Amino acid sequence: MSNCNVSGGIPEEISNLTHLTTIILGGNKLNGSIPITLGKLQKLQGLGLGDNKLEGSIPDDICRLAELYRLELGGNKLYGSIPTCFGNLASLRILSLGSNKLTSIPLTFWNLKDILQLNFSSNFLTGPLPLEIGNLKVLIVIDFSMNNFSGVISTEIGGLKNLEYLFLGYNRLRGSIPDSFGDLISLKSLNLSNNNLSGAIPTSLEKLSYLEDLNLSFNKLEGEIPRGGSFANFSAESFEGNELLCGSPNLQVPPCKTSIHHTSWKNSLLLGIVLPLSTTLLIVVIWLILRYRQRGKQPSNDANMSLVATWRKFSYLELCRATDGFSENNLIGRGGFGSVYKARLGNGMEVAVKVFNLQCGRAFKSFDVECEMMKSIRHRNLIKVISSCSNEEFKALVLEYMPHGSLEKYLYSSNCILDIFQRLNIMIDVASALEYLHFGCSALVIHCDLKPSNVLLGDNMVAHLSDFGIAKLLIGEDQSMTQTQTLGTIGYMAPEYGREGRVSANGDVYSFGIMLMETFTGKKPTDEIFNGEMTLKHWVNELLPISTMEVVDANLLRQEDIHFAAKEQCVSFIFNLAMACTVESPEQRINAKEIVKKLLKIRDSLLRNVGGICIRQSNLN
């Protein structure tokens, strides 16, 4: 009876069905506690109660089911410790307790020497990984991700020769990756991401000939990335977020430092050949510059180009032709300081042209600010400025064209509805751009106007943050906050920004939180239902404890969806994150780095439960 929309509690009278060998009730709306009378079903081999709303602790009575082979209780609200008596379930082979609120594993549990699959992900388990895990010699799957495990990884895990999937991501593990991992000869997938692991990646991993998926991202690993074995097949995503790694350029890491002998040879080459050639070239360039200056500057009808130009110059005439005279048919959108047009250049390339409205006094400053910002920042989730065009009567930026328009357009379109994965990926893209602006630039960049209309969607629906017309560049570690008289958009501004004109990275986080709420509720902060004290933030805060369904966009969650429970939990986590972004005190808000980590964690959980490698099977076959 899985995924049948069954609600209510599990009746105690189920124990009367004494000949049952399998119960499958996963993916429903069952609530209350697990009845202790289940312990009377002595012939039970499979019990599937996953993805419901069951609460309370796991009853010891389940340990009376001597023939139990598979137990699935994941995706509920169970809390407390795993019962001590689980160590007596000698027939148990598959155990899934993920996405609950469990806090500890008893030592007796490691007596289950014949167990094949363990899923304890997304709980509140703490402490070091137990050494006794090495006793479970026939294990095929371990998923301990998204808990609070700490300490070093036991070398005992290397003795699990049959292990194919090992997931330890999103914990607080430290120390090095044990060399003994090279003994996991059956391993197909390894995820150690988002921990505090340090040291080098052991070259023993090159021996793992079956390894297909590797994720070591966002740790503190250092040294050269191995090149042999399966490492030739891994992409940069496997290693991102480890700033001290080096290796092949296609992994987006710096090259490793060469030996002293090699460095000496390069120095000789530099002194003997390159330096004289460079000196000669420099003399020629200086001579050409001096000769050009003697000729004097010739008047030109072309607009002067800003330093932001990166590949070619444009005249007003070219941009006028490319947009059909800035025709309304090519108008993409209008903003406070101007309009954006779609343009087709002479070579057929499509671009966007942002024309500033010079009738607005602040447009001059907005143009200068955007040029200043965009010439020095580069990120895959920031809109790319190709060039600019500027004279006394006309100012424009030539931008990368985004074929899918803005996030705002999609959120309120009846023709094309973004699903939960698309919205989550877009928010991860925006958060990544924000993390770069706040932590990845030489100076702190405050966007000041985060909202869906400033999030543009390119190929494959990759999001790009745009419009830096009122952004602020803060130089110096002590300049974490500044003041401005230029206000952002009503509904998205942080309280301190709207009241006092104080802008900071914390203010951007607040705006992101509001946009996160809007993206998953489908309601603008300026919606007519919000007035007086009732704001989008207060509305979500009041209704979320009652039910996620009260606030989520109706297009995202449907009761009949077989993955309803997993998606509902995902959306609940997202709204809780949005509330953490929008707390009243700026100092108490989380930062962009934490936002990215939490969103990635939410996405990983959703992929595991809905669309990723299926570790926990939803049916008991």
TrEMBL record:
Keyword Hydrolase among record annotations: no
Enzyme Commission identifier(s): 2.7.11.1
Compartment annotation: Cell membrane
Gene3D superfamilies with a match to the protein in the record: Phosphorylase Kinase, domain 1, Ribonuclease Inhibitor, Transferase(Phosphotransferase) domain 1
Keyword terms, alphabetized: ATP-binding, Cell membrane, Glycoprotein, Kinase, Leucine-rich repeat, Membrane, Nucleotide-binding, Phosphoprotein, Receptor, Repeat, Serine/threonine-protein kinase, Signal, Transferase, Transmembrane, Transmembrane helix
Gene Ontology molecular functions: ATP binding; protein serine/threonine kinase activity
Domain Protein kinase: 326-607
Membrane topology: Single-pass membrane protein
Binding of ATP, residues: 365
Coiled coil start-end: none
Keyword Transmembrane helix carried by entry: yes
Similarity comment: family membership: Belongs to the RLP family.
The protein's name in its UniProt record: non-specific serine/threonine protein kinase
